[in-house]
């Protein structure tokens, strides 16, 4: 594959440190994405069922129960969840705050996508990935755009 001319390469001339920072932020977002997905799902299950169970988390995420157990251990060590013997998984206060922030980001991204003409189903699906990688500045711009559409 041939490289496009310099005029068509968006990163041409970009400072190497700025370029590296962008990649660092993307890698960090990928690391936190899984944690956020688990916390958001646990909050959803608690709202629906009163508690979240490991078997239901595994089913909803399409992973094996040992995978869920490993992540729950990490979430517990990070102070986001606590488990009770023979009961479900519950969010700590920090876990609740993270779940609410994730849910809010998701709603803003999804509303923005719908506002620019993306179908409901695609907006819901795409928001799931975008929400973890969007900067606060971009999220604020999405929110302003959605608010302007409503008014």
TrEMBL record:
GO CC terms, sorted: cytoplasm
Pfam (any one): Fe_dep_repress
Segments of this protein annotated with the region Disordered: 1-27
Subcellular location field: Cytoplasm
Superkingdom, natural source: Bacteria
GO MF annotation list: DNA binding; DNA-binding transcription factor activity; protein dimerization activity; transition metal ion binding
Principal location listed in the UniProt entry: cytoplasm
UniProt domain HTH dtxR-type: residue ranges: 31-92
Keyword annotations: Activator, Cytoplasm, DNA-binding, Manganese, Repressor, Transcription, Transcription regulation
InterPro entries, per the entry: DtxR_MntR_Metal-Reg, Fe_dep_repressor, Fe_dep_repressor_sf, HTH_DTXR, Iron_dep_repressor, WH-like_DNA-bd_sf, WH_DNA-bd_sf
Start-end of Basic and acidic residues biased regions: 8-27
SMART domains in the record: HTH_DTXR
Record Gene3D superfamilies: Iron dependent repressor, metal binding and dimerisation domain, Winged helix-like DNA-binding domain superfamily/Winged helix DNA-binding domain
Annotated NCBIfam families: PRK11050.1
PANTHER family noted in UniProt: IRON (METAL) DEPENDENT REPRESSOR, DTXR FAMILY, TRANSCRIPTIONAL REGULATOR MNTR
Task of the protein: In the presence of manganese, represses expression of mntH and mntS. Up-regulates expression of mntP.
Family designation: Belongs to the DtxR/MntR family.
Record text on subunit structure and interactions: Homodimer.
Protein name: Transcriptional regulator MntR
Naturally occurring in which organism (per UniProt): Paracoccus subflavus
Lineage of the organism: Bacteria, Pseudomonadati, Pseudomonadota, Alphaproteobacteria, Rhodobacterales
Name of the gene: mntR
């Amino acid at each position: 594959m041939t490289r496009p001319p310099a005029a068509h390469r968006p990163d041409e001339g970009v400072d190497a440190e700025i370029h590296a920072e962008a990649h660092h932020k993307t890698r960090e977002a990928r690391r936190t994405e899984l944690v956020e997905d688990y916390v958001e799902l646990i909050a959803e299950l608690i709202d629906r069922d009163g508690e979240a169970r490991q078997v239901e988390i595994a089913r909803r995420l399409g992973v094996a129960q040992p995978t869920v157990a490993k992540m729950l251990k990490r979430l517990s060590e990070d102070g986001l969840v606590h488990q009770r013997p023979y009961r479900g998984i519950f969010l700590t206060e920090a876990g609740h705050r993270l779940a609410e922030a994730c849910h809010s980001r998701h709603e803003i991204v999804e509303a923005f996508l719908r506002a620019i003409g993306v179908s409901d189903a695609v907006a819901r699906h795409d928001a799931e990935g975008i929400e973890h990688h969007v900067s606060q500045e971009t999220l604020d711009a999405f929110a302003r755009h959605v608010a302007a559409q409503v008014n």
